[in-house]
Amino acid sequence: MNEISITHILFLSTALFFIGVYGLLTRRNMITMLMAVELILNSVNINFVAFNKYLYPDNLDGLFFTIFIIAIAAAEAAVAIAIIIHIYRNHHSIDVEDNEEMKY
């Protein structure tokens, strides 16, 4: 049976990271920008789990960091969605280019 090597996992993580960076830099909608940040965080989680499995299989440090990042990402998403709702109520748009305060 073929085992998935660390190279395949790191390739997947790199692809997710750059898709997230592309989405963050090219999108104007704040919800899609938030989803791009979540992709970047998930690529970091994949790296932590992969390095933990292949380099230090007896330790659980990578898994603990991953659980911590997942908790932080959930809190970040909740706060970001609350901020986006507040901006939408004030400006009636969540496009970054439409609002002068968010352009820069």
Map the helices and strands.
Elements: H1 6-26, H2 30-55, H3 61-91
Helix pairs in contact: 1-2, 2-3
Quickly describe the structure:
This protein is an all-alpha fold. It has three helices and no strands. α1 runs antiparallel to α2 (30-55).
Q: Using the coordinates shown, work out and report the CATH topology.
A: Helix Hairpins
**Gyration radius from CA atoms, angstroms:** 17 Å
Sequence of secondary-structure elements: HHH
Mean pLDDT: 87
Q: Judging by the overall fold, what is the CATH architecture?
A: Orthogonal Bundle
Describe the structure.
The protein has 104 residues and is mainly alpha-helical. It has a single domain (6-102), classed as Helix Hairpins, CATH 1.10.287. The protein is built from three helices and no strands. Helix 1 (6-26) runs antiparallel to helix 2 and helix 2 (30-55) runs antiparallel to helix 3. The mean pLDDT is 87.
List keywords for this structure.
104 residues; 75% helix; mainly alpha
